[in-house]
Design goal:
The protein is 72% helix and 2% strand. The protein has a two-stranded antiparallel sheet with strand order 1-2.
Length: 355
């Protein structure tokens, strides 16, 4: 057993080194557009894993992730913009004097974006999590829209519908993928703790979980708040990737994309969410071709149809729900057990042949 644990530890170190080498190669060999797409994939991986914690592992049908992203994005944007940029951008109404001269370093501002989103998650979850199933989905979607409307109308804080620009840019693959890896490790650690076992018990059977002494509401609220924190963190990173934010970015469509990642990857699989995030992000860019005019062999000319990408992904989601409900990974995770078992069988076979 000790030897197997040691082998897994070595394999984990090798895997992390391989990922670090890939990031290093990508940072120095890919163009700006390709780096941007991979950074966006890292953000979607954070969103997918955090929503999977709420939906796949705790069984709460929440549609509020776009609202928490909005909170995280605006928090970090306001804190990191320079006073000069604020003076130029807030021309309809001046920014609140308390915020006018604040300029934080990037890391504390991004973390505070996640913490602020977690506070909103706690406040929203306290009344909403007393509901279940479709009612919870409608309530969280409503709260998400309320957040967006508040952002639109608090002009002296968020600049209203005009949004914010000149947000400090972060382009490094290291920052986004380090955040994604840390998110995966933290949520994996949570799921392997007593909290994680309680989340799964609530998902499988609330009545049985309560009979075992699990505080249902407390654990639901904990899961919801943790998910909101990482959604806010992803929103903060999104703001620094795009360098501008406005309320229209965080409509329900954004939550739909995250939900697609969770369902496609498998509800209850962290590995599946990461794989699906890469597929959806890269696929969305590849499918831009269907929104442009196409000439097929000089015979048929197809006009460009804006929004066709989302139609294709909607059809994909329907197909997954209808014919492959478990998604790509189901509830399985990538681990070394399969490889080690294969190696053990190979060793046993070689010993048998040698004997």
């Amino acid at each position: 057993m000790d030897e197997q644990l040691r082998t897994k530890f070595i394999l984990n170190i090798v895997f992390l080194l391989a990922v670090a080498l890939l990031i290093y190669w990508g940072q120095h060999n890919l163009n700006n557009f390709e780096i941007r797409i991979l950074n966006l994939a890292a953000i979607f991986a954070i969103l997918g894993v955090s929503l999977n914690l709420v939906l796949g592992f705790t069984g709460m049908f929440s549609l509020g992730h776009a609202g928490f992203m909005c909170v995280g994005a605006y928090t970090t944007a306001i804190l990191t913009m320079s006073p000069g940029s604020k003076a130029i951008i807030y021309f309809m109404e001046p920014i609140h004097p308390v915020l006018a001269n604040i300029q934080w370093p990037l890391l504390p501002a991004i973390l505070l974006g996640g913490i602020t989103a977690a506070v909103f998650g706690f406040v929203i979850g306290f009344p909403a999590l007393r509901l279940r199933d479709d009612y919870l989905a409608i309530a969280t979607l409503g709260f998400s829209e309320i957040i967006r409307i508040i952002v639109t109308n608090t002009i002296t804080i968020t600049n209203g519908a005009l949004g914010l620009k000149n947000i400090p840019s972060i382009k490094s693959l290291w920052i986004y993928w380090l955040a994604a890896i840390l998110t995966i490790l933290v949520i994996k650690r949570i799921l392997n703790s007593s909290w994680g076992y309680a989340f799964r018990a609530i998902r499988d059977n609330e009545i049985a979980a309560e009979a075992m002494g699990i505080n249902i509401f407390k654990h639901k609220l904990l899961s919801f708040t943790i998910g909101a924190f990482f959604a806010g963190l992803a929103g903060a990173l999104m703001a620094h990737l795009i360098t501008s934010v406005d309320p229209t970015m965080f409509r329900f469509l954004f939550t739909f994309q995250i939900l697609l990642i969770v369902v496609l990857g498998g509800m209850g699989s962290i590995s599946g969410s990461v794989v699906a995030a890469l597929i959806v992000t890269i696929g969305m860019e590849v499918l831009r071709i269907v929104e442009q005019p196409m000439d097929l062999f000089g015979v048929v000319e197809i006009p460009g149809l804006p929004g066709m990408r989302m139609v294709i992904f909607s059809i994909l989601l329907l197909l997954v729900i209808l014919f492959y409900r478990q998604g790509l990974m189901g509830t399985r995770e990538f681990n070394w057990d399969w490889l080690l078992n294969k190696l053990d069988r190979l060793k046993d076979r070689m010993r048998g042949e040698a004997a």
